[in-house]
Amino acid sequence: MGAESDWEPRAVCRRLEPELFFEPATRSLAKAACARCPVRAECLDAVLIREEGLRVGDRSGIFAGLLPGQRVALAKRRAAQTPPAQ
């Protein structure tokens, strides 16, 4: 990981225990925290870039309110909508 982005200090998760986002028993609490986060879009963009090329099994936790499989599906949809570079 590199330097902290300007949006990260404003993330709701910064004020919560990290384990909340990685334990199945607290999944609904983590998703609720993400739902009210003012930088959810920035978080989603950052995690999709960071996870690019990883298999589903190599991803973990809830980021931007999404589970690993949901992030993979979203990344595939976005890639399919992006026109090829010319």
Describe this structure in words.
The protein has 86 residues and is mostly helical. Helices cover 40% and strands 0% of the residues. The protein is built from three helices and no strands. It has one domain (8-81). The radius of gyration is 14 Å and the shape is globular. It has helices at residues 27-35, 40-50, 68-81.
Low-confidence stretches: none
Compressed to H and E, one letter per element, the order equals HHH
Biggest sheet architecture: none
Specify Rg, calculated over alpha carbons. 14 Å
* Contiguous helical run count: 3
Helix content: 25-40%
SSE class? mainly alpha
Silhouette: globular
Instruction: Let me know the number of strands.
Output: 0
Question: How widely separated are the two ends?
Answer: 31 Å
User: What is the beta-strand fraction?
Assistant: under 5%
Let me know the average pLDDT: 93
Number of domains: 1
Short overview:
With 86 residues, this protein is mainly alpha-helical. It is built from three helices and no strands.
Q: Features of this protein?
A:
86 residues, mainly alpha, 40% helix, globular
Draw up the topology in text.
Elements: H1 27-35, H2 40-50, H3 68-81
